[in-house]
Structure formats: C-alpha cells, structure tokens
Fold these 4 entries.
Entry 1:
Amino acid sequence: MSRSSAFRAGLLASALFLALPALAEDLVKEQAPSDVKITAKGDVFDINITNRRYETDILASSLGGPEILYQLLLIEESHESKEGLEAEPEPVSAKVKVTAFPMTKDGKGAAKFTIEADGDAAKASGPYLTVTRYGCCVEQPTYAIYSLETGAYLFNATGTGDSGQWATLGAQGGWKNERILAYHAAPTAADDTLLKGAENAQIVISYATTTKALQRVLVTVPKAVIDGDTALEWAPKLELVSKDQPDGTDRIFIDRKDDDPAMLFTGVTVRLTLDENTRIEIPLEGDALKLDAAKLPEGYALVAVKP
C-alpha cells in the first residue's frame, strides 16, 4: 500500500460522521462543467481544453483546531495545444488550479485557498497536492508538492514514486513533528524556474513540514559536468543516515517527544547519491540543514535560496 493510501485509510473512519447527514439530505449538490474552444488558423487548430472535477480530501491537522479536516476540492486542469491533419500535436501550455472548501456537517464553507501552478495533472492525497509536469525526450517529470492544509508550495521532487522520491522524519507529537526531505534533479521542463538563483545549479534539495517549506538549497556543479551531460547518467537516491540507521533509509521515526523540534532530528544526515562516485551529505542540526558542515564532491557547492 502506498503512503497516500495508508494515510487516507487511517483517517477515513474518523471522518465518516461528516457523511451521515447526507443520508437524509444533500449537503452539497453542484456541477463543474468542462470547456473546449477550438479555433482554426489555416491548416492548424488552436485547442484550449479545461477539465473540471470535484474530489474530497481528508487530512490530519498539524496546526491545531479540528484534529481531522475534511475538504471539498475543485480541480481544474487547462491545456492549450496546436495540431492539424498534417502536423504533430504541439503542447503550448498546461496549468492547474485547485480551490479548497472546508466541509462540515453543515455543508461546504467558503473557499479556504486556491493553488495555481504550471502542470499537466493534479492529484490530491491526504495533506498533499501533487502537480505533475510531464517530461519529454531526455527530460524527466517533476512533481510540485503543495500543502492541502495551508495551500503553501512545499517543494519539487523527481525520481521514482507517484510524487517523486522523498525521505521523511517523524517523532512523537503528531504531524507537527513531521519533516520531509526531497530533491529535484535536472533535466526537466521546470528547471528554468527551479534552478535559477545560482550559476550551474543542477539539483534542488528541500526541507519542509507538511504545511510550509523550511529550506531550499541549490547544488551547483562544475561546468564540465554540464557540458558532458553527466546529469543524464545520474540515478539519484535520497536517504537518511543516523546512528541507528548507518546504511540509510527513507524513513526515520524518533520514538520520543520534545517540544523543541531542533532537538529531535539533530544527528541525522541527509545523503544524496548521484552515481557510484558522487555523493552529497548534509547533516541536520537545530531543525535545519547545516550547509557549512556538508561533504561534497570536488567542485560542487551549496547555495541557500528563499524557500
């Protein structure tokens, strides 16, 4: 079972009471029509399609208030393309818009937040919205992750998995003590945005909670790595290393409670292996990636950017 399926199954029983009044009367009854517009320019058609749908989402709150949040999501996926009888389809743009409405036994509340992003598809699961931007040719897909509790952008991820590869830290005390490490590695269609801020940046490493980004770090590489297309040969793997997990793992749970998260995860090291000869290691200290203590391949550097 995936992390998202297990999360949803664990919360479903707690939220079922919200659906009970619907047995007697409708709490929500709405429609979300889709749109299509096609115009012709000679032998080429400009096609604009917006598909809309509703989904429900259940998540455990990490900010106080109701322990379990139940939401109705309006998801809009818009695609513009050009195509013709004698021309290959050419994508022009793809955008996602998601509006979250709180649901209670009294029905749908006012819009809580709206998420808008470049992307081909949107998927909601528990506390996260994943906006996927597909790859093409040598480009790989990248997954932009947003909080479905606050609407905040958290990070982008690449690699294996439905939403890229993540590593997570947890501790007693609930979701407020959950931490996520993720990486985005070039090449993708989003690199112009995600890698700006440092010359020769090829990787982003992010540190986040389920509701906000804490740190974003660009990894710069020697120009020879870029000129030689070395990144195309990378097979990145992100792991957490600790005294109890010296071989690395994608999940560490600290079996104790501390009101100061800075004390919980100190001693854990984030390890990103790019290939058999290239490894990046950054220790966690005081609930932050300690960049000046990182171990890097020759010619590599770390640049902190605004999360």
Note: The CA atoms of residues 139 and 187 lie 5 Å apart.
Entry 2:
Amino acid sequence: MRRGSWPHAALLVAVTVLVWLVAGVAGALGGWMWWAVAALPTVALLVAPILLFWLSGERTWPTWVAFAFVFVLLLTAYAGPGDWYLRAAGTRTTATVREVSCLQTVRNGRCLYRYTLHDASGAPLPGEFRDTIEYEYGSPVDVVVDPRGLLGPRLAADLDSRVFDVIALVGFAGFAATVAAATAVGRRDPDQPAPAPQVRP
C-alpha cells in the first residue's frame, strides 16, 4: 500500500464495511458451512489494522488504535446484519414453546436452549429459536419470524433495542477516523529533508 494514499484509505474503509457485512450475514445464517464462510471475513477484519502500518509511513500507533475499534466491530458483526434484515422483512408474532433441548452448556453451568416454537394455528415456525433463558412448555414468546425461513426466530424485544447499531456506528466512525489520521501523518515523508529557508538580500 502506498504511503499517504487517500484512495487506498477510502478503499480500506469500504472493504472493512463489506467484510463486516459478509461475516454478519454468514453468521446469522448459522450452520457449520456458513460459520466456515464467516471465518474468512473475520480474519480480514483482524488484518485491516495492520495495513495502517504502511498507510501511515510505518508508524505503529494507528494499528493499535484501529485494533480497538475492530474489536468493537467484531462484537457487533454477528448481530447487526441479521437484526437489520428481520426488522425490515420479519413478521412479529406470539409463538408458543413446544420442544426444548439443552444445545450446549455455557458459563456457570447454564444451558443454551434450543426451542421449537409453534404459531397460533399450531404449526411449527421455521428455523430454530435459541436462548439462555429457560421457557416452560406452552409459554408464550413474542418473536420476529423470517417468512423466508432463512433465519431463526428472534426475540422481538432484542430487535427493538438499537444498542448493537450504536456500538457498530461508533466502531466504524472510530476506525474511519483512525484511517484518516494514519493517512494524514503518512503524507509527511520523513525521508524528504525540509526545504532550506530562503534568505532575501
């Protein structure tokens, strides 16, 4: 990457947004195949801050600052795109808990539960609903359902919250500002001697 290149800086920010979206979509779809697909853009997110070393004229501080914001983006990557999709295309409904199993044990011995939900007519909803909260058989749960069946149901209350949106916005704004700062300092070439002052007669 050429030192102090504004086009390369803009490209780096754009690619970071793209790989964040790809990681989020693949993670939201779930399954081992999609998690494997999500692994590559996740690695690309971690590599992005390293590129600031060359963009900034081989300074190290932009890379460390950018890593903090990339970590914030990683926290939101697997929630943001899926939430956006369900808010736009999902259908809110009150489902009923039918089947439940402990998918895996999480911290403090608690389970990540996998539920089968049924709608008001008794038909099973497409996709799996997972939560660390234990719902009793027959309990009503307010969820948003993907009519295409691509994503599993999600709690309506979680989708009403915009916390992850705000965190992702802060992460992208901070990363873009760091890229801009790295580019600005990279334009100062330390190998070029400062021009000698001109003495007027």
Note: Helices lie at 6-29, 31-47, 52-55, 61-77, 80-89, 156-160, 163-186.
Entry 3:
Amino acid sequence: MRNTVFGGLLHKEWIVLKWLLALIILLDVVVITLAPLLTKNFAGIPDTLYDTTHIIVGTWFALHIFSGVFMLFVSLKKEMKNLEMWLHSPHPMVQLVGAKVVFAILAALASLFFSSLLASIVLYVIGDWTMELAWSGVLALISVVLAISIKLVFMTMVGWFFWSVYKVVNSRTQFFSVPLIFIFFIITFVFWEQLRVSGLFDWLRTIVPVRLTNESFYNEHTSYFFMGFVPNGIAFSLGNLVFYLIISFVLLMIGSAFFEKKVRV
C-alpha cells in the first residue's frame, strides 16, 4: 500500500503522529488499570472498585469522541508551519486532507478498541463475573464502542470543517475571525438541535436498528454515559449510519474546498 500515493500519505502521517499515538495508548493503560484504584484509595470515594472503574471507563470512552479531532489538529498544526506540500503538490486537496483525516480516525479507533479490550479484561477480573454475565457484558461493551466509533468519525469531520472555515475567514479578516466562527458555530448548533427536537434522529434510529443484546450493564449511578450512547440498547441503525456517513463526506469535501482557497489561491 505504501507504493500508492494514498498509502505514502498515510505512512507520512504515521511518522508524524506515531509518538502521540504511543502516548495515548500509554494513557489508555494508566487510566483503565491504575486510575480507578488510585481514585478510590486516595480520594476516599465510597463506591466499590468495580463502580469506580465503570465511571472512569465511561468518561474515558466519552473523551475518545474527540480523540480523532485532536490528532488531526496536531497533524495540521505541524504541517501548517510549512505550506510547500499544500502549494506545490500535484495531488487533489481532498486526497491530501483525506489521508490526514483517515489516519487520525484510524489511530483514534485503535485507541478506543484497545481501551475496550483492556476495560473488558479489568471489569471481568474485578467484577467476579460468570461466563454468562461476561458474554452479556462484552456484547453491551461492543454496542457502546460501535456507537462511539460512529460519533468519533463524525466529530472528526465536524472539527475539520470548522477548522478549514476558520482558516479561510482568518486569512481575510484576522480581527473578526474568532467571533465570526463562534457565531457560525452557534447557528449550526441551533440548526442541529432543531433537527434533534424534530425527531429526525429518533426516526433514523428505527431504520434497521442493530441491537446486539437485550441485556444491559448500565445503571443510573455508574453508567450514565453509556445510556446516552446506546439508547434502548441499540448500538446503531442503518438509517443513522448512512446519514452520518453522508454528512461526514459532505463536510470533508466542503472543508477541503475551503482549505484549498486558503493555501492555493
């Protein structure tokens, strides 16, 4: 794959971000294996170690939604110091950007999947589960990971879109760029909220829903993050998957077009 243009671009991203990814994997280990124990012992939390681990794992999983955006921004910041690649490359802007986006998403998903594997082992050991309960817990955990993965991809595309719009606006009017982008973000958020209130996402969730298990490992005390990610136990549906993929593709294309105006015009 490295012999192809896109494969070469992905390899370049690996060179740029490999140490950051290694650091994040290390954080995965520390947060899931050590943080619950240290929190319970030194913070004096009355919950059991199992409940404390559940809360910390849920929080860590939720933060992974933004991990793709974070890695993408780190990569962009490093290469914005030197615009020669963007200015003189014969390849389409969407290909150059696409490699960055794809690698950031793959790296973030790798961290999420590793975290889920580690969390399942830790929860199995300290939870004193039977094999039947363990299997139900694994299916529930997979449901959460799948739901978060879709949100992770979508959030990375949203981050790319707003970043590219900001760069274009900033190149035209530096003084007003931040307030203008903030206003644009608020308008977009209100529009998205109107879609949610209208019931669009509830309707999309009914189109070929995927529910891996009827069992639930959530409860209001330890797993309120998970309840929001997997409403009614539905990991995702074909309807919302297609919807988010289409919107993500549109954001990638529009963001690439905006960014091309910034670096090549």
Note: Residues 249 and 256 are 11 Å apart (CA to CA).
Entry 4:
Amino acid sequence: MDLVPLIFYGVICALLGALLPQGMRTGARLGLGAAIGVAAAALLPIFRSALGV
C-alpha cells in the first residue's frame, strides 16, 4: 500500500474537520468538502513530484 496518498488525504481531512465551522448547513459543508477533495486530488501529483516520491 502506498502511504503517501493515505497520509496526504488524512491531513486534508483532519484540517477540514478542524477548520469548518459546525454552524454551517450540512449541504454547504458537504459541498465545500467535495470541492476541497477534488482540489486535493488534483494537487497530489504535484506534491508527489516535489517530494520525489
């Protein structure tokens, strides 16, 4: 198993969970989470090449 994506997405999810206000509507949190997930997936190859992994 490749640990780089697991760690990368774990960090993204932890930050997302810590920074999103609990007062937001569920749909808004879901949409923002989906947008951040897509952005993270797009940026992962860049981070991997920068790390040389």
Note: The mean pLDDT is 86.
